[in-house]
Amino acid sequence: MTMTSPAKVPELALPARTPHRAPKRASRFKPGAGKQLQGGPFAYIALAVVGIGSLLPLYWTLVAASHTQDEVLASTPPFLPGGRLMHNLDAAWTQAHLGKAIVNSFIVSSCITVATLFFCTLAGYAFAKMRFRGRGALMTGVIATLTIPPQLSVVPLFMLMSDLGWSGSLESVIFPTLVSAFGVFFMRQYLSEALPYELIEAAKIDGANNFRVVLSIVLPVARPAMMVLGMLTFVQAWNDFFWPYLALNQQNPTLQVALGQLSASYTPDQSIVMAGALISTLPLLVVFVIFGKRIVGGIMSGAVKG
Amino acid sequence: MATSTPTRDAHTPPPRGSQRKPVNAHRQMWRSRIWRFDDKASPYAYIAPFFLVFGAFGLYPLIYTGWIALHRVEMTGLDRMEWVGWANFDRILHDAEFWTAVSNTFLIGVMSTVPQLLVALGLAHLLNYKLRASTFWRTIILTPYATSVASAALVFALVFRADGGLLNWVLHFVGLGDTNWANGHWTSKIAISVIVIWRWTGYNTLIYLAAMQAVPTDLYEAASLDGASRWQQFRKVTIPSLRPTILFTIVISTIGSMQLFGEPLLLEGGTLGAIGGNEHQYETLSVYLYNYGWNLGHLGPAAAVAWAMLALLLIIAAVNWLFGRFVRKSAV
């Protein structure tokens, strides 16, 4: 840090500043910290069973999506993927307008993710490192909003969207989710440990105003946490079902809504429904395979309550 | 949560490169005023977006729900509101289907939360051992979290199908065939609970694991010096250290189970899904609300259901609080 020449800023004269909080342990969750007991074969067997249970439904989605419905529902169901995958994907694509739904899902999830990252980092920084009146109470308010289920406000929300002229359009799904209490909490936790006061003060001494500090100090420091929060937010926005299902219609659905409508149609073909499910899950599975480690770490670090 | 911060003086006049150029006093005053304003207003500006969005799309609708619940509003004419007083509440409270939905929500909530959290606790304990490829196991267990309610519900609908369902095929080998899962009162609730458990166990496992890794190892060393077995260590050290986390997951899961919507809606799909089965055997409060508001088009009663859910949440919170107090007292 810039401890170089304190003589250059004599007029600063900080009045009896209390010493900085002792730096917390950098990471409380170092895997393998301390003495860990070695896992025996039982642990591996149990984990393997649970792991298979976790993956089996996904595998079954693939199997069902690659056969005809009759084969899937036969008295002896198939266990290996068949050759009808392309045909079923194609059918799902045209029957449920999945092309448009995918584009919609990408628009919605990206907008929500970008906005959430920006607003939550700002708010998290303010709660972590700035002093202002009512901070504790406001943070309690943020956390309290976590406990309010969306069900409680959908009826007026629907009417509000109709008043705003957003009925059935993507705005009605994007705007209510632009911020997230979890995100504010998550960024606050991260920044209060990862961002030293010295860094902020150094920037201020160099003449940066508050927003400048955010741009050139806070955002770079927050980047790892923003990556994690971004992925969590994207997954959540992509998978959201309740409000989009009420707010959007058949002409302009997100993937999940299209999927719900596909299955709600008169006697749906199960293989085609499964092909739709595969299309809606595949992008996230790819994200998971690539970033799984980071998402796991993010959930673990965001989960801890003081 | 730690809310104390070092007292950093917000009014510290910022240092400027004023030694080089003499700045006149007037300008300097202005600058420090702007600076002070920046310091005062910035935190509020940074948290404002959260509160504005939440106020507009969360808090305002939440309160307005109460007003709508006292009116007749139809989906066909959203701008016409007609005062009816308590009629909507009267209507749902005298509806047997509403009480079925309440008890279903409660039962499915218990049936999905309890096993889920117990399994998560056990799994977290296993993952807390030193394992090969521990990240791999964690990722695998979290994978269901990446699937949506919709796709999970649809796959399990296929697994739980009465004819041609995967589960019934498996059960045939044990000599237990042809359960009509969605039709039965208990079996349909089991089916829905399984979907919930499948999707959320991994998530809760990681939360517990994080908390377990924060438990100081010397506690275990002390316990083992005192001759405590593994099981005793788990019970006497791990579980008490995890108590706040466990309480947190219980609260989150309870709120989550109040919201169950996609799972029951899509278990059978179509018109049966919208009413939660032919005898409403798996209709949850969310489905009931959806059915009243979006299927039948009566938004007034739907808003009344929302308030009933709020009341239920408050009751659960009170029970939780009392329970927590009881546990703390009996622990002393």
From TrEMBL, chain A:
Membrane topology term: Multi-pass membrane protein
Database matches in InterPro entries: MetI-like, MetI-like_sf
Pfam families in the cross-refs: BPD_transp_1
Subcellular location per the Swiss-Prot or TrEMBL entry: Cell membrane
Keywords: Cell membrane, Membrane, Transmembrane, Transmembrane helix, Transport
Gene Ontology process terms (BP): transmembrane transport
Family per similarity comment: Belongs to the binding-protein-dependent transport system permease family.
Protein name: Carbohydrate ABC transporter permease
Naturally occurring in which organism (per UniProt): Streptomyces brevispora
Automatic annotation (TrEMBL), chain B:
Primary localization: membrane
Keywords: Cell membrane, Membrane, Transmembrane, Transmembrane helix, Transport
Intracellular or extracellular location(s): Cell membrane
Bilayer topology annotation: Multi-pass membrane protein
Region called Disordered, residue ranges: 1-25
Residues spanning the membrane: 44-70, 106-127, 139-160, 190-211, 245-262, 304-323
GO-annotated biological processes: transmembrane transport
CDD domains in the cross-refs: TM_PBP2 (cd06261)
Family: Belongs to the binding-protein-dependent transport system permease family.
Name used for this protein in its record: Cellobiose ABC transporter membrane protein
Organism: Streptomyces brevispora
